[in-house]
Amino acid sequence: MASSSRPVSPHLSIYRWTLTMWTSISQRATGVALYAGTALLALWLVAAAIGGDFFAGVDWLVGSWFGLLVLFGFTWALLHHMFGGIRHFIWDRIIGMDPASREMIVRVQLAASIGFTLLLWAFFVWFK
């Protein structure tokens, strides 16, 4: 017979969502998104190798507003995932493990991924 003083297993309902929890989930989601974006990039490269109407169709799709939106998201996912890897590299060195430092590192990761995405697109796309 179990004693009533035994600890209860934690559940999501008792946790307060933090930024580190969100970035942990988004790290996995961006990893999945990178597979799809890489497949799109591979399709574009294959179409470039084949040429002709096939390349024109794929190039039109990638150059459309939807394709550019997907590429913008792919750029953010790539940079977010990269900065998440740097964050984990820092944490693997047992640096910044207190709650305030963890929160600060995550905020830097988010700001860097958004900032560098906008900077890259401004430089390479909008200011040709």
Blueprint (SSEs and pairs):
Layout: H1 19-50, H2 52-63, H3 65-92, H4 99-126
The string of secondary-structure elements, in order, is HHHH
| Overall geometry | elongated
Distance between the termini: 73 Å
Q: What is the alpha-carbon Rg in Å?
A: 21 Å
Full CATH superfamily name: Fumarate reductase/succinate dehydrogenase, transmembrane subunit
Q: How much strand?
A: under 5%
What is the CATH architecture assignment? Answer: Up-down Bundle
Major sheet details: none
Overview of this protein structure:
With 128 residues, the protein is an all-alpha fold. The protein has a single domain (18-126), classed as Fumarate reductase/succinate dehydrogenase, transmembrane subunit (3 helical TM bundles of succinate and fumarate reductases), CATH 1.20.1300.10. The protein contains 4 helices and no strands. It has helices at 19-50, 52-63, 65-92, 99-126.
Short recap of the structure:
The chain is mainly alpha-helical and 128 residues long. The protein contains four helices and no strands.
Task: List key phrases describing it.
single chain, elongated, 3 helical TM bundles of succinate and fumarate reductases, 4 helices, 128 residues, 78% helix, mainly alpha
